Amino acid sequence: MTPTTVISIGREALEIMLLVSAPLFIAALVTGLLVSVFQAATQINEATLSFVPKLLMIFITLIVAGPWMITLLTDYMRRLFESIPGIIG
Questions:
Q1: Is residue 1 part of a domain?
Q2: Residue 2, helix vs strand vs coil
Q3: pLDDT digits over 22-58, tens only?
């Protein structure tokens, strides 16, 4: 196993991780921004107010994007397992 192979596997793993986590992060970010604007407009300063909407949006995002995320992860793992004989030698 060469250093180039290790770097390639690590790079691809990081790319998959970013792709899988991006929908959840974006949903939490947008929800937090909307709740913050609402809090600023109504002058409600409650720290726990943004928790429930974020939790709900992440849950909805998991329902919508979950199959795509699982497919992406299983495809990566299948390719990784299939390449083990070639990597070992």
A1: no
A2: coil
A3: 999 999 999 999 999 998 898 888 878 889 999 999 9
One-character DSSP codes across 49-79: GGHHHHHHHHHHHHHHHHHHHHHHHHHHHHH
CA distances from 53 to 34, 35, 72, 84 (A): 10, 8, 27, 43
- Burial (CB < 10 A; 0-12, 13-18, 19+), residue 9, is middle
Domain membership flag for residue 30: yes
Closest alpha carbon to 27 in 55, 66, 67: 55
